Amino acid sequence: EADIYQTPRYLVIGTGKKITLECSQTMGHDKMYWYQQDPGMELHLIHYSYGVNSTEKGDLSSESTVSRIRTEHFPLTLESARPSHTSQYLCASSPRQGPYGYTFGSGTRLTVV
Amino acid sequence: AQSVTQPDIHITVSEGASLELRCNYSYGATPYLFWYVQSPGQGLQLLLKYFSGDTLVQGIKGFEAEFKRSQSSFNLRKPSVHWSDAAEYFCAVGEPGGSYIPTFGRGTSLIVHP
Fold it and tell me: What is the pLDDT of residue A78?
């Protein structure tokens, strides 16, 4: 079944550690996105990609980086985690042509202690 | 740039009652409009979307939404709520002809009483 997968679902990590949040989709979508979600707040776009070797920063300043080497894979990396990075991170994808809406993954809940 | 407002942070309804969740947007022309639902511990799921044409759109799970240009609104409705509808609901607005990247509202939390 075509879907979008995020791992891990939950992560507790110490300050200063490097972490990579994984996101993979099997729908063949060209566009992929990373959002940060905090309770009671809007979803904030932190990175997006329109295809292989294409990455852009979103409207929320972020210390994370992304890569898009394969169409199906869009990992997000934090080089040095801080408590302020504690949040839920959602990955999403959509087809290249047209505003079809997003397919979201189940999210990664990150806690930095 | 577009913006979206969901005036209600929480809505409480009894099971079997009707539901209306409000969404107002700010945009110069007719935007693309979406409603998503998020169950606890899950990602968002697309309920329905509006691009053009009939202003009343039907979605999954028995939901519908009506686009009202004069009121800049896109309210979500359901005639009879089930306990499983308890979740967070997000309205989103996208810019036609642009990158299609939508702006999301802050969400409305739906609580369903038995």
Answer: 94
pLDDT tens for B52-86 read 889 999 999 999 999 999 999 999 999 999 999 99
CA A77-A83-A89 angle, 5° bins: 45
Place of tokens 């509808």: B85
Task: Give the separation between CA B95 and CA B80, rounded to whole angstroms.
Answer: 32
Q: What is the mean pLDDT of chain B?
A: 93
Q: For residue A92, which residues of chain B lie inside 8 Å, CB to CB?
A: 43-44
Which of A10, A25, A29, A37 is most worth mutating to test chain B (most B CB atoms within 10 A of its CB)? A37
The reply to whether A106 touches chain B by the CB within 8 Å rule is: yes
Q: How far is A56 from A40, CA to CA, in rounded Å?
A: 26
Q: CA–CA separation, A99 vs A87, rounded Å?
A: 27
Output B50 or A62, whichever has higher pLDDT: B50
Neighbouring C-beta atoms of residue A110, cutoff 10 Å: 20
Give me the pLDDT at residue B11, please: 97
Report the helix count and the strand count for chain B, using DSSP H and E.
0, 12
Residue B3 has pLDDT above 90, yes or no: no
Number of H helices, E strands in chain A: 0, 11
